[in-house]
Amino acid sequence: MISNRPYMIRALFDWIVDNDWTPHLQVDAHYPGIEVPMEFAQDGMIVLNAHPNAVRELMMANDWFSFKARFSGVERRLGFPPEAVLAIFARENGQGMPFPPEPYPQASDEGASKPPKPSKPTVSAVKDSGVSHAAAEKTADKTAQKTDKDDKSKKPKKGSHLSVVK
After folding, report:
1. Which of the pair, 127 or 21, is modelled with greater confidence?
2. CA distance linking residue 3 with residue 103, whole number of Å
3. Share of the chain above pLDDT 70, in %
4. With helix as H, strand as E and coil as C, how does 16-42 read?
5. Pair 29, 87: CB distance under 8 Å
6. What is the Cα–Cα distance from 161 to 163, expressed in whole angstroms?
7. Which is it for the CA torsion 144, 146, 149, 150, positive or negative?
């Protein structure tokens, strides 16, 4: 069965442009075979402005998306499969749709020469600090040991709550 992802991306792209908003694509920068400027990737992802006024030669086929865009004044050709798209959204209000990360395709003759990529990024509304959970826990343990005088770290923290405002 053909994936519905490219159809959904195209539909949301058209809806965003029809509302005079700016479509942005969040792309997995580690997905095998993609052609994006890696120097602009952050946390394993790159966000691309795909507005028709910002790109040239936009092509959104079922198996490959491509266009030309300028980065630091230099025009570059970008290309990636729809499976590499993690989200499409409007810059102005964030409306759009996230997509679950797709498993990376099995190594083929084409990609056999490339080294294995790190684990796939996850889509999150909170910016990753770049510190692994294990490293953060070790740092927290050391900090707690240093501040034994302060019992605040040993008290259970209250969970956040919602209140209705009318």
Report:
1. 21
2. 13
3. 64
4. HHHCCCCEEEEEECCCCCCECCHHHCE
5. no
6. 7
7. negative
Q: Strands of 65-71's sheet, edge to edge?
A: 55-60, 65-71, 74-80
How far is the C-alpha of 99 from the C-alpha of 25, rounded, in Å?
11
Q: By the 8 A CB rule, do 102 and 27 touch?
A: no
CA 102 to chain centre: 12
DSSP 102-161: PPPPPP-TTTTTSPPPPPPP---SSPP-S--HHHHHHHHHHHHHHTTT-GGGTSPPPPP-
- Of 78, 85, 68, nearest to 31 by C-alpha is 85
Distance in angstroms (rounded) separating the CA atoms of residues 78 and 47: 12
In one-letter notation, the amino acid at residue 131 is V
At 80, is the secondary structure helix, strand, or coil?
strand
For 17, other C-beta atoms within 10 Å of its C-beta total: 16
Does the predicted model carry a pTM greater than 0.70? no
Separation CA 121–CA 86 (nearest Å): 9
